[in-house]
Design brief:
Length: about 130
Amino acid sequence: MVSRRRAAGVLVALVASLAACSSRESDQRLVTLDRTRTSPSGEVVAALVAEDDVLHPIICDREGEEMWRDDLEHVERYVPGVLWESGADVLWILSTDHGNASVRRDSSGAWARTMGSDGMPEDVAALVR
């Protein structure tokens, strides 16, 4: 069993290595504090915002109106990996604080988070290995 601290270190190193490697497709979808990313449909944008010493992934419409905010607080030293699926408006949050989650529109059109890794695409799953 991998310790939580070691897993966090691996994820942080992985996110840092992705940020340094601009040729990888996943890097083009990776959200950082300095970089928002537009969803595959072009309809919404994901961002990572800092509030005090915690981070919150958010989804905004094209006009910048917030549509969804992660109510879980992510500690800044364990920056979550946040990226869109390559072919769908599904935002993945890879967090050592809370575990993995996907965020997608539900049947009413509201954005909703689902905890866990069910349905995670292989290219996203490769980031947590």
